[in-house]
Amino acid sequence: MDIEKYGSGPCPVGRALLRIGDAWSLLILRDAGYGATRFEQFRASLGIAPNILTRRLTALVAEKLLTKHRYSTHPPRDEYVLTEKGREVLPILAAIGAWGRRYHGEGGTSFLVNEETGGRIEPIVVDAATGKPLSDLRTRLVRPAATNHAAGPQSP
Fold this sequence. Notes:
Blueprint: H1 3-8, H2 12-20, H3 23-33, H4 39-46, H5 50-62, E1 66-73, E2 76-82, H6 84-87, H7 90-104
């Protein structure tokens, strides 16, 4: 992957995926959204190798999606807490989960419920201006004026 092209190019999807696009990072953010804060909680939940988990946590802290706080000095232990930036990823993960349930939910899958009402949540992505689901709208991509149009299509 051309990191420079997608990391600083006009495509916000490319920019975002370079920061949170690997499966481990998304699953760590998901678990943090459900209350996991400690290294061992993430490791046990995900079955991830410690060296990979360390790298992903370090990257998520560097991207300011998680903050790292020391909760024990002897032995040294840290916890990882979602930042506002990290919390804003959770609705995106909910939408990905809804898509996964719809198209890959054979055998049953987990789902979200509203803790106040107990009702099942069915996430959708809507246009803030109209309230209409994006999947129902015809859209087109508008590129910034300084973009090289010969580079081919860019994702939104």
